[in-house]
Amino acid sequence: ALARRVSGEVVIDLLLDPGARIRQAEEVASPDPVLTGAAFKALQEGDFEAARIGKYPVWSWLRVTIDFNLEP
């Protein structure tokens, strides 16, 4: 993607279980499949915190936007 000068925002919806593990990831928007793959890989290596209702962790959806920008 860098060699082709591809940039832009990748938007992904994540389904997190009560243990804050990614159970499902869905692309919402992306300018290029290579950037989508890079975003999925980065998110798999990420650390999340579970949503809570009161003191109880619950399943939740999280929308994440990753901006791949070529400008310094």
Account of the 3D structure:
17% of the residues lie in helices and 44% in strands. With 72 residues, the chain is α+β, with helices and mostly antiparallel strands. The model has no long low-confidence stretch (mean pLDDT 93).
The helix content, as a percent range, equals 10-25%
Order of helices and strands: EEHEEE
- How do the strands of the widest beta sheet line up side by side? 2-1-5
What is the averaged pLDDT score? 93
Low-pLDDT regions = none
Radius of gyration: 14 Å
Alpha plus pi helix count: 1
Head-to-tail CA distance between termini = 16 Å
Shape: elongated
Tell me what portion of residues adopts beta-strand conformation: 35-45%
- Tell me about the largest β-sheet: 3 strands, antiparallel
Total beta-strand segments: 5
Structural class of the helices, strands and pairings?
alpha+beta
Layout: helices, strands, pairs:
Layout: E1 8-16, E2 22-29, H1 33-44, E3 51-53, E4 56-58, E5 60-68
Antiparallel strand pairs: 1-2, 1-5, 3-4
